[in-house]
Amino acid sequence: MDALDTGAGASDEGAGRDPPDQARLGRLAREQAALRRVATLVARATPPQEVFGAVAEEVGRLLAVDFTILVRYDPQDTLEVVGTWTRTGAPAPTPVGGQLPLGGRNVTTLVYQTGRPARIDYNEVSGVIGQVASRDWGLRSSVAVPVSAENRLWGCIVVAFSHQELLPAETEAHLASFTELVATAIANAESRSELAASRRRIVAASDEARRRIERDLHDGTQQRLVSLGLAARAAEADAAAGRGDLRAELSRIAAGLADAVAELQEFSRGIHPAILATRGVGPALRTLARRCVLPVDLDVTTNARFPEPVEIAVYYVASEALANAMKHARASSTQISLATRNGSLLLSVRDDGVGRADPARGSGLAGLADRVEALGGSLHVHSAAGAGTHITVDLPLEYELAQGAG
């Protein structure tokens, strides 16, 4: 900046800037351009494999190294190569999808062990990875920077030379900018995967519910009505022939029809409790608590009506939680509270059972979490061994807003 102020000593290569400044600004411009290209891919939800390949190439060209390798850490202390680039354009010795065991002294193992950047001269390496890197890749010096996603170590980016030249001291800082974009791509991909899995669970649950309804109707009410129809035809035939006790037969048919109606009412309550539709979630929870064989300490601070999907979600979470407390938790009592706060409806269900409830083990909570999240809410399960189970639900009352945001 002094040269600009005085105008003295300016070179032909720049107006008031010396060549080192020009070179630094040029590198910065190239780095920002490379980051923008990768960010554009991430913003377009490009498949992660394509993003990894693009990152490897952009990093390699930007830093003018011989090799770039992007790896992901897998269980059982192994790594998987997910992206590569070579200066010569030749295929990488270890292709994408190749796996190697961690261990020994090498940058990928050091990053895995410490969670921090690492650099190494390959005269000092050991382990299978070190042997492969020096023998197959021909690496002589390398730097690795960790990639973290969702607060966990996911993998690392490695840049390397095939000769003895050491990588510049600022290499780690340059790589860190790219690791953030890789982490975003990973998080986006995992979110899409989780959403797809949630949708599959919702579809599977809907299909199972439909099959259950069909089965119950066929095996129960439908069979009863078929039998009553046959009885009515028999009574008609007996009446025409002047035989049998028509009054008694009609009485039996009427009683059977009354039972069928009661059965349908009970069945419909299992689908959607009538009191929930007519009076709201507060009275429905009180009825649910009265019918529960466990003592229920119920604290409902509102009798207001809420959007129907919100009330249904709250009711079924409470119903499933009570069922789990009775069937699995060996609980002796439960507590349910319902309140509004800051534009949300808050449900809490707590039991004093054995704990260790796991939504992934088919308790029904995974499907309920999908239902709650589809409304823009959240469901959390706290269930330490021996400490009972506590389920909390937070549902926004602006249902249409939450639905539109999804």
Could you characterize the architecture of this molecule?
The protein is α+β, with helices and mostly antiparallel strands and 406 residues long. It folds into three domains: 2-193, Beta-Lactamase (2-Layer Sandwich), CATH 3.30.450; 205-271; 276-405, Histidine kinase-like ATPase, C-terminal domain (Heat Shock Protein 90), CATH 3.30.565. Helices cover 53% and strands 19% of the residues. It contains twelve helices and eleven strands. The chain has helices at residues 2-6, 19-43, 48-63, 107-114, 127-135, 171-241, 246-271, 274-279, 281-291, 308-327, 365-374, 399-405, and strands spanning 67-74, 78-86, 99-101, 118-121, 141-149, 152-161, 296-300, 334-341, 344-351, 378-382, 389-396. Strands 3-2-1-6-5-4 form a six-stranded antiparallel β-sheet. A five-stranded mixed β-sheet has the order 7-8-9-11-10. Helix 6 (171-241) packs antiparallel against helix 7 (246-271). The protein is elongated and about 115 Å long. It starts with a helix and ends with a helix. Residues 1-17 and 400-406 have low confidence and may be disordered.
Superfamily (CATH H level) name of the largest domain: GAF domain
The strands making up the biggest β-sheet line up spatially as 3-2-1-6-5-4
Strand pairing plus helix content: what structural class? alpha+beta
Oligomer: single chain
Identify low-pLDDT runs: 1-17, 400-406
Question: CATH class of the largest domain, please?
Answer: Alpha Beta
Examine the coordinates and then state which fold CATH places here, giving the name of the CATH topology of the largest domain.
Beta-Lactamase
Query: What is the typical, i.e. mean, pLDDT?
Result: 78
Find the count of extended strands (DSSP E, 2+ residues).
11
Q: Strand portion, in percent?
A: 15-25%
Task: Tell me the Rg in angstroms.
Answer: 34 Å
- Describe the global form: elongated
Give the helices and strands as they follow along the chain. Answer: HHHEEEHEHEEHHHHEHEEHEEH
- Tell me the count of domains: 3
Calculate the terminal CA-CA distance, rounded to whole Å: 51 Å
Percentage of residues in helical conformation: 40-55%
